Amino acid sequence: MWRALARTTWRAAANDCGSPGFRFAPSTLTQQQLRHSKASKRYTTNTNTSTAPPHKIRIGIMSVEKPKVVFVLGGPGAGKGTQCSRIVDRFQFTHLSAGDLLREERSREGSEFGNLIEDYIRNGKIVPVEVTCSLLENAMKASGKSRFLIDGFPRNQDNLDGWNRQMSEKVDFQFVLFFDCGEDVCVQRCLGRGQSGSGRTDDNLDSLKKRISTYNNDSLPIIKFFEGAGQVKRIDASPDAEQVYGEVEKILVASGF
Ligand SMILES: Nc1ncnc2c1ncn2[C@@H]1O[C@H](COP(=O)(O)OP(=O)(O)OP(=O)(O)O)[C@@H](O)[C@H]1O
Ligand SMILES: O=c1ccn([C@@H]2O[C@H](COP(=O)(O)O)[C@@H](O)[C@H]2O)c(=O)[nH]1
């Protein structure tokens, strides 16, 4: 019942939160709406007043559970998406891949960000957080669900700062699932994925060199930051997918999921 209530309320909060940043639909992201969303940070209504504990949000006279969020991080090709699909099959999580959302936005007819996203993806660079975070927030609201695996985000300091500004008060962050995998294995997996017809414009050696370098320089420090805060569950992602999932399952069960 609580889950149902949280679900309803997340949607209600989404539709009713007083922040213009909440009003645009995922299929209609525009520069103007992003500017609006950024400006709204200065006057967003804070619904979480002092009477609600941190994992709850106050909506009118009610306090309800905030949606739970697990960040899923690791190198390119470490197996994040593969493991997220398995987690979704067993646990009540909704999987949101930041990369998938960006690719979708890139392909959306009329998107103002299509060319920018393609350039960032092909060159392994990290798209400005205003775009990614808005896509994530919109997808969360559109799902109406209350438990999320956010895959491949936050990847740098800009991502983390933007998330903290826009989302940290609205969700109940749990921990980072970190899929730790050697560079060579990651590269081989991505090349294999490209050869099996992924159609991704970044599953090639040239893009992979850039992606790995971005991961080492920008993303690993973020994982280390969470580690320092005791918020990382590390998993050796080099064994086969079945074995890796065995470890994931143990962690999620031990964490109460
Ligand atoms: N444990 C594993 N052992 C061998 N191959 C794997 C394993 N996990 C995933 N793969 C394969 O490696 C490729 C990359 O996996 P996946 O897409 O899940 O990685 P990812 O971390 O989500 O990648 P990216 O960050 O690039 O989106 C896929 O072809 C997948 O089938
Ligand atoms: O938060 C994000 C997530 C992804 N990107 C860009 O997309 C590609 C592909 O991401 P995958 O997670 O491998 O699907 C990544 O290399 C970035 O260029 C991003 O900018 N921000």
UniProtKB/TrEMBL annotation:
Residues binding ATP: G77, A78, G79, K80, G81, T82, R193, P239
Entry-linked InterPro entries: Adenylat/UMP-CMP_kin, Adenylat_kinase_CS, P-loop_NTPase, UMP_CMP_kinase
Listed EC numbers: 2.7.4.14
Binding site for a ribonucleoside 5'-phosphate: R103, K125, I126, V127, G152, F153, P154, R155, R200, R211
Catalytically driven reaction(s): UMP + ATP = UDP + ADP; dCMP + ATP = dCDP + ADP; CMP + ATP = CDP + ADP
Compartment annotation: Cytoplasm; Nucleus
Record keywords, A-Z: ATP-binding, Cytoplasm, Kinase, Nucleotide-binding, Nucleus, Phosphoprotein, Pyrimidine biosynthesis, Transferase
Region (NMPbind): 97-127
Cofactors: Mg(2+)
Cofactor note: Binds 1 Mg(2+) ion per monomer.
Residues that, per the record, bind CMP: N159
UniProt keyword annotation of Disulfide bond present: no
One Gene Ontology cellular component annotation held by this UniProt entry: mitochondrion
GO BP term (any one): pyrimidine nucleotide biosynthetic process
Molecular function GO labels: AMP kinase activity; ATP binding; CMP kinase activity; dCMP kinase activity; dUMP kinase activity; UMP kinase activity
Domain characteristics, as noted in the entry: Consists of three domains, a large central CORE domain and two small peripheral domains, NMPbind and LID, which undergo movements during catalysis. The LID domain closes over the site of phosphoryl transfer upon ATP binding. Assembling and dissambling the active center during each catalytic cycle provides an effective means to prevent ATP hydrolysis.
Free-text function comment from the UniProt entry: Catalyzes the phosphorylation of pyrimidine nucleoside monophosphates at the expense of ATP. Plays an important role in de novo pyrimidine nucleotide biosynthesis. Has preference for UMP and CMP as phosphate acceptors.
Recorded family membership: Belongs to the adenylate kinase family. UMP-CMP kinase subfamily.
Quaternary context: Monomer.
Protein name (record): UMP-CMP kinase
Organism field: Drosophila yakuba
Lineage, highest ranks first: Eukaryota, Metazoa, Ecdysozoa, Arthropoda, Hexapoda
The gene coding this protein: Dyak\GE10646
